[in-house]
Amino acid sequence: MARLVRDRLPTDDLVRIKKPVWVFGHDGRIREGDRVENAEPAWSYRQGISTLGKLLHAASPGSVVERECRVGRVERSSGAWRIRDESGQEKGEFAKVLVTAPAPQARELVAGSGAEISLAGIDYAPQFSFVLGFCREVEPRRSYHALLNEDRRHAIAWIGFEEDKAGHVPSGQTILVVQMSPDWTMRNMEVDRETLLPEVMRELRSVLPVPDPEWWDSQRWRYALPKKSWDASSLKPLEDDGLFFAGDGQAGKGRIALAIRSGIDVAERMLV
Ligand SMILES: Cc1cc2nc3c(=O)[nH]c(=O)nc-3n(C[C@H](O)[C@H](O)[C@H](O)COP(=O)(O)OP(=O)(O)OC[C@H]3O[C@@H](n4cnc5c(N)ncnc54)[C@H](O)[C@@H]3O)c2cc1C
User: Fold this and answer.
1) Distance between CA atoms of residues 124 and 226, nearest Å
2) Residue 20: which pLDDT band, with cuts at 50, 70 and 90?
3) DSSP sequence for 27-68
4) Residue 109: CB within 6 Å of ligand 1?
5) What is the pLDDT of residues 231-260, one digit of tens each?
6) Is the CB of 185 within 6 Å of ligand 1?
7) Could you tell me which residue ranges the Amine oxidase domain spans (predicted)?
């Protein structure tokens, strides 16, 4: 991953997140994080992490991206794979297909092909994220970039300071990304976000003394974190027929580097 990001792709917009991740417990007490984990470099891009996908696409001559197209079906007929969009329109016939949607969505796409049996029972935890904007810097003298709930007993799983990623936040301001825990998210997935904000602020203030934000936003991720890895061996017979799967679900952990690693591994098998 380091070779790909630092040596193979353009690095003009690559930014290193220099400060470490510290941890907090269910009582809100903050302490220094794991030194070994923090020794791993953390990266982002000036315009956001979606830059990575754009750079990979630009570095892949011949690749074609079709945006705003929701795939409805991947089906086998006459020895080939056909892809149809949501409206049923055929998008082409292919000898090999790689599906990278999270397992529950991948299962729907390939229903009837036999692949859905191998993908059954693979579950993802949801995550509710809140973004809070402050016109002045919050905690300007802190030694950490983000705080992780280590005992998984707090309603908040992660608090990140976006201004540590160069280019993301105007100078002198703070943007906090507050990721709620999977349990809290499950309880509140369908609740109106305005109703939830006071509780989110209360939970946040049990860790950090923050004022009310000047602005805020939120996002619900239904398939955020794979709970366990896919059984790759059960997918092997499908690979022999040209149907492949990749993504963070194969590693059982939500990390971009692991999703890319799984993509590279599958690509090597597809090219045989
Ligand atoms: C809130 C949050 C914060 C995170 N922060 C970090 C972080 O800081 N660092 C890190 O390393 N990882 C982070 N992760 C994890 C990281 O985002 C994932 O591990 C990674 O994106 C997984 O990549 P993927 O390609 O497997 O799946 P995804 O990124 O989920 O991509 C799957 C794609 O398939 C598309 N799709 C699904 N169904 C269809 C369909 N029918 N037709 C067309 N398209 C379809 C989806 O729209 C999606 O774009 C975070 C995750 C979340 C939820």
Assistant:
1) 4
2) very high
3) T--EE---HHHHHS-EEEETT-THHHHHHHHHTSTT-----S
4) yes
5) 777 788 889 899 999 999 888 899 999 999
6) no
7) 40-271
Nearest CA to ligand 1 atom 6: 255
Q: Is 101 in the pocket of ligand 1 (CB under 6 A)?
A: yes
Distance CA 250, CA 227 (A): 11
Structure confidence at residue 267 (pLDDT)? 94
Q: What is the CA(221)–ligand 1 centre distance, in A?
A: 9
95-124 tens-digit pLDDT: 999 999 998 899 899 887 767 777 777 789
The rounded Cα 41 to chain-centroid distance in angstroms is 18
Distance 8 CA to ligand 1 centre (A): 22
Structural domains present in the chain: 2-53+124-224 (3.90.660.10), 66-122+227-270 (3.50.50.60)
Helix, strand, coil percent values for the chain (each to nearest 5)? 30, 30, 40
In short, whether 70's Cβ falls inside 6 Å of ligand 1 is yes
Amino acid letter for position 19: K
Rounded CA gap, 14 and 17, in Å? 10
Compute the distance from residue 80 Cα to the ligand 1 centre, in Å: 28
Contacts of 236 (CB under 8 A, 6+ apart): none
Say yes or no: CB of residue 247 within 6 Å of ligand 1.
yes
